[in-house]
Write a structure and sequence with these properties.
The chain is α/β, with parallel strands linked by helices. It has ten helices and eight strands. Bound molecules: NADP nicotinamide-adenine-dinucleotide phosphate (NAP).
Length: 318
């Protein structure tokens, strides 16, 4: 057993927001053991090496986790349970992607945006919740693009029954008439709405089970620039705009941020004692604010929870 006191798992921690968040934890908190959990072994291992050199924090490891595969998630949890690490105190559900060039499916035949951004994290958290210590925290990275009133330039979410959102063909039919880009972006904003339904329902289920774990949904704001790879599937013109033009908006709009700034805000949700007792809330950077009106639909949150539980083969109760 390591002499460190706590473990944090950061999904997709090899780049972008997750990487910056890991860096802040590593620089400020020697007592945390950090696991970067991402899909590519080489990328995650080189991120670990870089972080150790930059921060001097030795207790950082990489573990392969592909959220687009139920069996990879189960394997990750088995490996984690056997690794003899310090007690688990935090899970940061950060990994996320969007597609601009057509519909893709996970290894289990789930539409990939919904599958990775929502369902993969759902399964991961459900499998780890027993190991998560009291006074621990789960942070789920959502986005202000879930809220049409925020005027982010992204299409409004279109929530359908989870069996439709999860099925590549039915999802295509439900979004018929949209271009590939608009379809991908709509799936993305809908998955970010699902992240909030999940966070709020998870907080309710935890409360019911009398566990003392908090759940926070987090909006990092728009983070254009080379720090984020979220535009990887965009065409060259949009990619150029994302990398070189949109970052300038940071000087004019507070909703446009850097991965460094938002990585700090995300890390603080875990590290800063003033957030300790807050659960089932949405944070815009460091500030608790209301999420969209639609995101408070308890029936939908329960529907998504129940459907997700049954499709991954778990009981509804935690
Ligand atoms: N960028 C923005 O403007 C923005 C705005 C609002 C919210 N967000 C949210 O912030 C989070 C981080 O975004 P980012 O900008 O940092 O994006 P990013 O730079 O593209 O990083 C995403 C991370 O997720 C990982 N990932 C993708 N698919 C995965 C899978 N199947 N299994 C495991 N890991 C996977 C990626 O791994 P690889 O390196 O192997 O691809 C990468 O480490 C996302 O949830 C995103 O929705 C971003």
């Amino acid at each position: 057993m390591s002499k460190d006191k706590k473990t944090v798992i950061i999904t997709g921690g090899n780049t972008g927001l997750g990487y910056e968040c890991a860096k802040v934890i590593a620089k400020n908190s020697p007592d945390w053991h950090i696991i970067l959990a991402s899909r590519n072994k080489d990328r995650v291992n080189s991120a670990v090496k870089e972080l150790i050199v930059t921060t001097g924090h030795q207790n950082i490891i990489g573990m392969v986790l592909d959220l687009a595969s139920f069996s990879s998630i189960h394997h990750f949890v088995d490996q984690f349970n056997q690794a003899g690490l310090p007690p688990l105190h935090a899970i940061i559900c950060n990994a996320g992607l969007q597609f601009a060039k057509g519909t893709q499916a996970t290894a289990d035949g789930i539409e990939s945006t919904f599958g990775v951004n929502h369902l993969g994290h759902f399964l991961l958290v459900r499998l780890l919740i027993e190991q998560l210590q009291d006074y621990g925290c789960i942070a789920v990275v959502s986005s202000d693009t879930h809220d049409p009133l925020m005027k982010t330039g992204m299409p409004a979410p279109k929530y359908f029954h989870p069996s439709v959102m999860a099925d590549p063909q039915k999802s295509d039919e439900s979004l018929a008439g949209l271009s590939s880009l608009a379809k991908g972006q709509t799936r993305y904003t809908t998955s970010k709405l699902c992240n909030i339904y999940f966070s709020y329902e998870l907080a309710r289920q935890i409360e019911k089970s009398k566990r003392l774990i908090t759940v926070k949904a987090f909006n990092p704001g728009m983070m254009p620039g080379k720090g984020s790879s979220l535009s990887r599937d965009y065409n060259p013109i949009l990619k150029f705009m994302w990398n070189n033009v949109l970052p300038i908006m940071r000087f004019f709009r507070s909703s446009v941020r850097s991965t460094k700034q938002s990585g700090t805000d995300l890390a603080n949700l875990i590290l800063d004692n003033r957030y300790n007792s807050i659960t089932g809330k949405y944070f815009d950077g460091p500030k608790e604010i209301p999420s969209s009106k639609e995101s408070y639909d308890v029936n939908r949150a329960k529907e998504l929870w129940n459907w997700s539980s049954s499709v991954v083969g778990l009981d509804k109760r935690i």
